[in-house]
Amino acid sequence: MVVPTFVTDDSLHSGRSPTLDARLQSLMNPRMNSVCPVSWLCLGHFAATWGMVGVIWFVQIVHYPLFDQVSQTDFSTYETRHRDLTTLVVLPLMLTELATAIVLAFSSRGSRDPWPWVGLGILATIWMSTFLVQVPLHEELSSGFDPEKHSALVGTNWWRTGAWTFRGGIAMIMARSR
């Protein structure tokens, strides 16, 4: 697992590798670099994004493929519970990711680094896909299992899986870059 390395501006310009102590101190440093100006903000963004990367891969590989294993009589109840319980997990992560992405993008104005804005743009498309494609498909599946709707849900979710994985890479670049 890759953990973001947060360093102070001083250690970057000294030519030395930052010590563990300097890295830990930088977590408390309110001044970071042009991409992640506040270390806790950057850490929160990284954690929320990678939390969503983990969730989306689990859902795509494990959870959605098992939908067709639920009996027809139980599926409507199952889908409703799935949607409600999943919301409890993903909503805090998604809101944290969105809030921190917005702050990071707007605080990077004047910087030549495009990653905060690229990441925010990808996140906007993920949210649009979520609320314009996946949520309506879940609503339709709440009435009962439909193989075509299930296939559409799995197929369209691959795009979100790739986009969130790419966002994870962007969050990693932002956490490590100057």
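Above is the first protein from milestone M3; the second protein from the same milestone is given next.
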Amino acid sequence: MVSVAHRRHHPATLLALLMLVCLCLPVTAATPIPRDKPDVMIQDATDQLLAISKQARSYAKDDPQRYYAAITGVLDQVLDMTYFARGVMATYASINRYRALETDAERKAFKARVYRFADAIKKVLFTKYGDAMLSFEPNRIEVGPAEIDPDDPDRAMVTQTIYSQDNQVYHAQYSLRRGKDGGWLVINVIVEDINMGQIYRSQFAEAVENNHGDVDYVVDHWAEMMLSRDWKGNPQDSGAEQDGGSSTDSSQASGG
């Protein structure tokens, strides 16, 4: 994991700064979140997330699955995990690689690998996010208005300024895109210049290299590796070669 020297905060802790706003009334289950306005969507989601984590401090130790399920119920509504997973996999999930496949069986396996990884990275992200939120209480949050990309009206950025109880100030930027249903979804987050998508992308590429190019092994053991102390996992002897490095190209496999 990349660290921020002047902050001394682990990225998982920084991730807990995301989508946090002033506490609303306690909630026991996720309520539908409108996605027609990016900034309003983020604020609605964070109201629920902070309320859930506040309430969960009384039961999370004894019933963690209840807490993770509540967190998931909110994040599932506002995060595009499949898009994020494709970005992390980079060339291994690129549209060019998909188009180069020759058979329906290969294309089916390609899509299945992406969806498996989306589930795996979701488990890792939501677990670390939930754990960190339990110990973080902001003093004040300021949510800026959504900034629509002038070159692409289906892209937007929302910025938050987060003031902690010890007077530290953090900045979080959410990248969003508009889906086919017209609703907005978060596709990446940058906290204090730490790009979460790039961090996971580097870790994925390193894990594939450490496991002799065995992408399927990394996908199927991602949660195990990332949630353990030694995230690199056990090298495999698959003999497969790694194809290229990480890519900053935002073009991902369309899934069909």
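Note on the second protein: The chain has eight helices and six strands.
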